[in-house]
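hey so u asked for the seq, here:
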Amino acid sequence: MPSTGLTVSNVFGNESGNQPATQIDTNFAQLFAAYNALTSVANYFVDGGAVNAIAVTVPTPLVVALVAGTALQVKVANSNTGATTINVNGLGANNVVYPGTAAALSSGQLVAGGIYSFMFDGTNWQYLGSQASGGGTQLVTGSTTITLSGMSSTTQGTLNYAVIGGAHVTLEVNSATAANITGTSSTNQLQMSQLPAVCYSTSFQRGIPCIVVDNSLYKYATANIQTNGFIYFALAGVNGSFLQDQVYNTFAIGGSKGLPYFWTITYSIV
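ran it, structure tokens below
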């Protein structure tokens, strides 16, 4: 599908009867030239929308229908600051997601003036580009506010995350302030919630080693990654062993509890 539509200037109109072969040759020559031009098979359009809201206008005589497999190449007008949508001809704003996921785009994934490819999967527009790092491995980075449960009051903090190749996630406490993310313990459990969808694991990841704060002390623990973006923590076994079965109700009820400023883990999401 071209961006401007194919046209044939020499047409038969309402004429009847035999037509000169030269006129037929002229028409077919124009069609031949148009279909063999690279621009005739490119779905290139210029974004006319706002930040995080790409808007594309497909001109007549082209006909657009949002069906699985519809492809677009768009020169975006604005750098995105988070979750982004595409609206084609006012048919509705559909989310842009990373391939094979429902994860929204991270801030800065699209740069103003850049040309990006998208394909409609029947529900969302899958982003077909990548943010290169090293040998072209897709790298998605960002920061997010998480909530720790098991405290006497709401305890939140900032985590940095990096998703490498859509397969591995590294989380770390934002160490810019060199401060622990802790609160006063009110239960014997420690949980984390509100991870962004791009950091979700598709299968339960158990026993990721890490350090936590319990009763104001640094202790060995394991992080257990749930498929809904929650993380459950458990203190390590006897002598700091990670090999024994872990249970969640092992934290002290009282004192300071949470994540130290140097906390980090890496796990698989496939």
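DSSP finds one helix and 17 strands in the chain. The chain has two domains: 44-127, 139-268.
lmk if thats what u needed
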